[in-house]
Specification:
The protein has about 170 residues and is an alpha/beta fold. It contains seven helices and five strands, in the order E-H-E-H-H-E-H-E-H-H-E-H. Helix 1 crosses helix 7 (about 155-170), helix 2 crosses helix 3 and helix 3 runs parallel beside helix 4. The two termini are about 15 Å apart.
Length: about 170
């Protein structure tokens, strides 16, 4: 069977990193976090914020290498624009992989804000966006089917199970 690229996107503080990391632990798939890549670039170069497409490009190239060697990949990033979503899809299909696009949402605004204001990114030096920055962020509506997982009122395990069921289904 061909490898699988699971792209986990969504606004900051919806739970996508937590869900994607747990999914990686359960499946053994490689886990690529664009925030980690971007922070490493910032620490090791003279580049500053905003980095633009750099972190996404690096992550897609690493994902493509892994997929071509038969390793399934979970890529976690905001993935806010149609162009970034198209690029991830092209990365997967170009490497001969199946692609599962997943959008993590938190439909409870109070819970989403609480998460934004209390979270630890787990990445040294990374300052998370404020609630005002999250609300104002450019985030294009999706124009194609994807798996939507709402983390409001759902445990991480339940969210992971929804994603796992989607790629275990031969129709997906």
């Amino acid at each position: 069977m061909s490898p699988l690229l699971i792209v986990v996107g969504g606004l900051p503080a919806t739970g996508k990193t937590t869900v994607a990391a747990e999914l990686a632990r359960r499946t053994g798939f490689a886990f690529l976090r664009v925030d980690t890549i971007e922070q490493a670039i910032l620490r090791s170069t003279a580049l500053g914020r905003p980095l633009g497409a750099v972190g996404y490009v690096v992550a897609r190239e690493v994902a493509a290498d892994l997929l071509r060697t038969g390793v399934s990949v979970i890529a976690e990033c905001v993935n806010p624009l149609a162009v970034t979503r198209d690029a991830w899809r092209a990365t997967g299909t170009g490497a001969g992989a199946r692609v599962l696009e997943t959008e993590i949402v938190c439909s409870d605004p109070a819970e989403h804000r609480r998460r934004a204001e209390t979270r630890d990114t787990g990445i040294p030096g990374l300052v998370p966006p404020t609630w005002a920055e999250i609300v104002a962020r450019e985030y294009e509506p999706w124009s194609r089917d994807r798996l939507v997982v709402d983390t409001a009122g759902r445990t991480i395990g339940e969210a992971v199970s929804v994603i796992a069921a989607a790629f275990a289904d031969p129709a997906s």
